[in-house]
Amino acid sequence: MGSVGLLYVGAVLFINGLMLLGKVEARSAGIFNLFVGALQVIVPTVLIITSGGRTEAVLGASGIYLFGFTYLYVGIGLLGGFDTTGVGYFSLFVAVMALGYAFVNFQLLNDRPFGVIWLYWSFLWFLFFLLLGLKHDHLTTYTGWVTAIQGWVTAALPSFLLLSGYWQNWNQNLIATVLAVFGVVVFGVLWALTGKRGTAATRAGRAGGETLAAH
């Protein structure tokens, strides 16, 4: 059941990334965030109820709420036109907790691929904190690309491979290594292409605003 929910996490991250890139209208993205947010609250609740009290099952389900509440928060905020500070600082909480879940996957569950994936999510939600909580608008394009890519790499593709049975048949250390290298290289290149340009554009915009104000 968790793999099914993960598939739609991929979809909502892809949609939200396109929204940040200006390809999807915000309110229409908000509706889909509500759909996936509700799903990501129902799924872990069912998993916990049917877990029989098994610690590992409860632990795995507990992390899903972090994302379910994020998408509900984002969806309501987009539809209501609310300030993003709250969801931004909640994203900081998620980013910190994701480090803990990464540690658990590496050390306790011996699931290295998802240990790396939790690090991906920690990085992404920290970007959400910088963009939505601290209002670093120059990160919008970079965050949009990272969000859209992570939708496929950390959620949609792993979910499909898990559901089809292919994921379990592959070397887990190899998957973890490929994911780690891909993340460092791709997000590093993206920053070189969009991050610095976004910073320069923001500075230019501020300088232009100051010039207009002076006149």
Automatic annotation (TrEMBL):
It is a multi-pass membrane protein. Pfam families: AmiS_UreI. It is found in: Cell membrane. The chain crosses the membrane at residues 6-24, 31-51, 57-79, 86-104, 116-134, 146-167, 173-193. The keyword Cell membrane applies. Signal peptide: none annotated. Keywords: Cell membrane, Membrane, Transmembrane, Transmembrane helix, Transport. GO terms for cellular component: plasma membrane. Its main location: membrane. Belongs to the AmiS/UreI family. This is Putative membrane protein. It comes from Streptosporangium becharense.
